[in-house]
């Protein structure tokens, strides 16, 4: 049915409800879809390969614009929009400058559609934070409206006329054809306000028919295809999993932008609002990344269990030190949930780990608080005020905190050259002066949809408050650097055992030669952070710090419990053996690596002296 016949049959007063126009940019160029390049461009030309874009408005909501072509099969998107290619796109429409000028703003991102500069052949993009002349457009009347897709216009009119809401979207899904859902659902969904998107998420949690329609219609969005159905299923049954193995299909998490410099993916925005609806049953968990740190696993896990964390999620990949066996034993006994990130391409591994874990582990939402740390970081409590974490989190929750930022206390080698079996909090009781500005953050799990190493990425379009450990407001959504702050250490902090002994420093900064997927390859030392290790190696430039000594009995008790589990004990022994068999050769190898490097003479001489001390201490007495 042609558009004119459609409107004649269904609307006596069509022009009072719908308007349709071509779009021209500030130079009078038509916004058109080029079927050869499959890009939307601005051009003066007119030929069979160029199809002018049409902007549809409903008089009830003139602030909303739908953009399409006359051909039903063309799937379009603007560069930088991060939209799923579909026959119809949606934007917010604003008046810009003179009465006949408009601007188009992304519904999920405070940026505007932009025409290329005068002499540029770049496509139309949506990436400009301000409106200037390139972001201004005008309407051009359509002479022949006979080929506009009538079904699209009918759906647009129905959806907008019934209010742009979760309920109207759900009702539309009940009557729309499968192709209409595929073509229009992304455009409709991203027009929902923050609260209406959350309301739609609530419908998805309860209505399996609506969920199925969403998943079937938008199969090219990971969160809609995988994460949201997982969340709905888990929320019904609240099941536990011991381990999760990812594959290369999730490597994109390592390069993903979550709304910083690009619009957030549509499914991610919806999923982040749905997370807010989930009620936790337990208090706290930890999300951590680890690689070749098997000799520390039991101590680190025991510490955080001893101070009261309910569960631990550990992401790891390509371990060479046999710690996969230990992680498997720990997860099989319900001590941790092990996520094997299993990357298959060169990406930011830690970023993939955090993103993929949160997207694929709805189990994390069973915990009110999540702390993100590494295996060399221990959440430390002031024993004078707290002996376990529960009362600390209860107080922060009562204060209204969405996040808690902990100061980073850098512990130093304390003159030690070799690893031994004693806990780190016993071996290393000196620290750098309190000058490090980096923080680590615990956050309310349901309120964040991604986390960086130092701070969370809060749910789309939501405000938040991060407190310090003394209850003072530290960061809000307006903060420019939430990973940095000048903090005190009252009540709690992060004890960061970054350097440890000479052996452990070398172990930490050794990487496999060649293919990281080949576990037979040997490790080799890479010079990293050598100057601070040397500068803070002994008592010079450091301060005593024995604040964690009162916790040692509880720590040792928990370690003993873990080692009483036979397969855990056996796996840990194999990790220890691997370390013992390889560490001396690695340390010796560093002599030539450092001497042949571009490090200053002072560093080379200091390193040679440390190696000499190391060799003397290893000689039989």
UniProtKB/TrEMBL annotation:
It comes from the Bacteria. Keywords: Membrane, Transmembrane, Transmembrane helix. The keyword Nucleus does not apply. GO terms for molecular function: glycosyltransferase activity. It is found in: Membrane. GO terms for cellular component: cytoplasm; membrane. It is a single-pass membrane protein. It holds the Pfam family Glyco_tranf_2_4. This is Glycosyltransferase family 2 protein. It comes from Brytella acorum.
